[in-house]
From TrEMBL, chains A, B:
Listed name of the protein: DNA-binding transcriptional regulator, AcrR family
Molecular function in Gene Ontology: DNA binding
Pfam hit, one: TetR_N
DNA-binding region, residues: 44-63
Entry annotated with the keyword DNA-binding: yes
The HTH tetR-type domain, residue ranges: 21-81
Length: 204, 204
């Protein structure tokens, strides 16, 4: 197995580090698919190892088992969604970016739904979710959202709208006549949600 | 077991019919809870029978097993949601009514999520979903929705927003500071979605 932690002398330090980074990355990619398909309790470390092309011991070594691996995925999502939620980007583009990730990397959306169905909470979730509302409030103060809307409830409604194609794929297909994984659907839904957000900016 | 199909002569016809209707109703109520908690494949007929206080044979007799029972629940949901989606009611009230049912009868929302996750389709789903979009298009023509919005995509976004408290209960709690099953949350979210719909009516 080439992915075992290497003995200290070979290969050289920099290359060893890059190998390790690539292995971690491959494990996380595989874990995202497995957790997304089967949820936390249904996911199997052996399947993740097989998909990543590493042995299970390496997953233990890097992530300290299933729970640690799941926590690493959660951290990765927060980093990714933090990157999408750029404070300097207009709100309609932020919402459109979430739709795009949800559809082009569907396992994130499924992971979120499993997490929501199970009712489990990860450490730091509450703080993270509140910071999303704080951001909407800041945008409202800057005139991006009409003053009659409450940022907390709006955050919930926009979140539901953004995740709808992942959650309600068949419904979406019936509603729009397009498969949700087609580029045309993704483009149109992004465009429509941008318009919806534009409507929310105007005072009544 | 008092719920067995009765012999033909006693009690009198009308009362016998009412008993049968009540039994069917209790079975459907119990089935909604069981399917909502565990999904189709996880639901057990024995648990439904126990909850309804009938024996399993009666469920076979009335509904022809698990599949028939599930189909009867689907029919019931279509009737219920058809009643909510009154053509003469303003759109904001229709959306608010769905939020209310989703929160006060949470098992419907969970049932929908299970169905969506499994990717299963019930007979008539497509036609039913298209009729929902037709209704939005009619409302748009009547001036309830701005002309730049596409009824199919808007239907998806509103559906996602309406089901968000059921799907994303913990998120909702973090976003708003209120538990989603509190009357205060339900009332505020209804009010906020009504405002959101009002924004969508105004041309940009």
């Amino acid at each position: 197995m080439p992915e075992e932690p290497k003995p200290r002398r070979s290969p050289a330090g920099g290359e060893r580090q890059r190998d390790a980074d690539r292995s971690r990355q491959r494990i996380l990619d595989a874990a995202l698919v497995e957790f997304g398909e089967h949820g936390y309790s249904g996911a199997r470390i052996s399947a993740i190892a097989r998909r990543a092309g590493v042995n299970q011991q390496l997953i233990s070594y890097y992530f300290n088992g299933k729970e640690g691996l799941y926590r690493a995925l959660t951290d990765r999502w927060r980093t990714l969604s933090g990157d999408l939620n750029r404070p300097d980007a207009p709100l309609d583009e932020v919402v459109a970016a979430f739709v795009h990730v949800g559809q082009t990397q569907r396992h994130w959306g499924r992971l979120l739904i499993w997490q929501a169905l199970s009712g489990d909470r990860e450490e730091g979730d509450e703080q993270y979710h509140r910071s999303m509302v704080d951001d909407l409030r800041r945008r409202q103060n800057a005139g991006e959202i009409a003053p009659d809307l409450d940022p907390g409830y709006l955050q919930l409604a926009l979140f539901g709208a953004a995740i709808a194609p992942t959650l309600l794929a068949r419904f979406a297909e019936d509603f729009t006549g397009l498969p949700v994984d087609s580029p045309e659907f993704v483009e149109r839904y992004r465009e429509q949600l941008k318009r919806l957000v534009a409507h929310l900016a105007k005072a009544l």
